[in-house]
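Example record used in the benchmark description.
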Amino acid sequence: MLNGVGSITKAFANNYYLRVFGITNLSSIIIPLFNKFPLYGAKLLDFNDFCSGISIINAKNHLTPEGLTTIKNLYYGRNSYRPRNSKSTRK
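Model output (structure tokens):
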């Protein structure tokens, strides 16, 4: 347990899972942490899309059909679905 924020569990070998409890912890602790210690490359692009999704949820726009479609589009634009020529930039 991470002071009520979440938990870390070992998956296999040197891989671990970080589970965060609640969107408030994501917005106030985890996102600022990764803004302070940034990711690079494709992971940064995924992180930026993740932050956009969290912003949509925090604004309650995920409850509208348009907001839900936007979140789905963010999801399908990540990782292996992302075009290879995408450029990573810090927000």
